[in-house]
Write a structure and sequence with these properties.
Aminopeptidase, 2 domains, seven-stranded mixed beta sheet
Length: 340
């Protein structure tokens, strides 16, 4: 099934719906869970869609949700063009009775999620992306930006290039990957603190980075001064889409804007590789709009099957006007936003 799964279009969940991502998540997940791969086939017997699901307990609730949750920024069934993803998911859920609530996290609203009366919306999130197919190259892209941003990028790149011993390197040697990942986590913690939601998933990312490197997907870049990493970007390129997943930097180099320098380098890389889209991924931070992004919003929805599930969602709905109480409930279901 893995080979057929890899051939399915990846427009919905993309990288996060690949068998490599799901298998790595399943293998490194410490919390008890049961993985279920629900598939649909066409008239010729070919795989037409797959929904990787897990059942977990959250207190008294039996919650069924997509495998990959927590680490993945975009989730949902992976389906061939023309297949109704909602019907596939509904059929999968109707075939099992051991759940109270379906929690559909970070699903693209462009795919119709969050638009049906049955969808109880728990959260909406921005998911900005750069449509790179609008520009031929870096110069054309830069010309489309504001005068202020153009001046900033050019100044910061020149300033960094003038620092003795300053280099940007991409990790392509598997032997150098463990040390580079350690540098990434260290720089991320230095920038975002120990409470970042990225750090607890280090085992997953070490394992997946190795898989992604072997597949040619990994774009792990370190910005060095005298062979010492001072900034890092942990990105991926898959099926024509560049995923700007996470980053870190040494706060001592903040004035040199090393994070912006590395961001510019990653966009240059995506353009040079003829990626059609550069995904900043979830989070509506103001700085992302400066780069010319358009939003591809995500929605987290819930469906109830049992009386207990309906009571839980009804209780949450009644607390909609009570921010603190609702935040406690939703926070128990959904992880914090990651630093990026």
């Amino acid at each position: 099934m893995t080979t057929d799964w890899s051939r399915l279009p990846t427009a919905s969940s993309g990288l996060f719906g690949t068998p490599e991502w799901i298998a790595t998540w399943d293998e490194t997940r410490l919390k008890p869970h049961e993985l279920r791969l629900v598939s649909a086939r066409d008239a010729d017997g070919q795989l037409a869609g797959i929904a990787p699901l897990v059942i977990e307990r959250l207190g008294p609730l039996r919650v069924i949700r997509f495998a990959g949750h927590g680490e993945a920024d975009i989730l949902g069934p992976v389906v061939a063009r023309g297949l109704d993803a909602r019907a596939l998911l509904r059929d999968a859920l109707d075939d099992t009775s051991d759940w109270d609530v379906f929690l559909g996290e970070r699903m693209r609203m462009a795919d119709g999620w969050g638009t049906s009366p049955e969808d109880v919306i728990l959260r909406t999130e921005s998911n900005p992306r750069l449509p790179l197919d609008r520009w031929e190259d870096w110069d054309a892209y830069l010309a489309s930006r504001t005068k202020k941003l153009r001046r900033e990028l050019r100044h910061d790149e020149r300033a960094f290039a003038s620092i003795p011993g300053a280099t940007v390197r991409r990790i392509e040697d598997p032997r150098k990957l463990p040390e580079a990942m350690t540098a990434l986590f260290s720089l991320h913690e230095a920038r975002f603190g120990k409470t970042s939601s990225f750090l607890p998933h280090a085992d997953f990312h070490r394992a997946f980075a190795s898989v992604a490197l072997a597949r040619g997907w990994l774009r792990l870049m370190l910005l060095d001064v005298d062979d010492r990493p001072i900034a890092a970007r942990y990105d991926f390129s898959h099926d024509g889409v560049y995923y700007a997943y996470n980053a870190g930097r040494d706060p001592a180099w903040r004035r040199e804007s090393v994070g912006l320098v590395l961001r510019a380098h990653s966009i240059r890389t995506a353009l040079a590789e003829h990626a059609t889209s550069y995904r900043f991924l979830r989070g509506g931070e103001d700085y992302k709009s400066r780069f010319g992004t358009v939003d591809d919003p995500l929605v987290t929805i819930a469906w109830a099957r049992t009386w207990l599930g309906r009571q839980a969602l009804s209780f949450g709905a009644r607390l909609r006007g009570h921010r603190r109480a609702r935040r406690l409930i939703v926070g128990a279901l959904l992880p914090r936003a990651k630093g990026s």
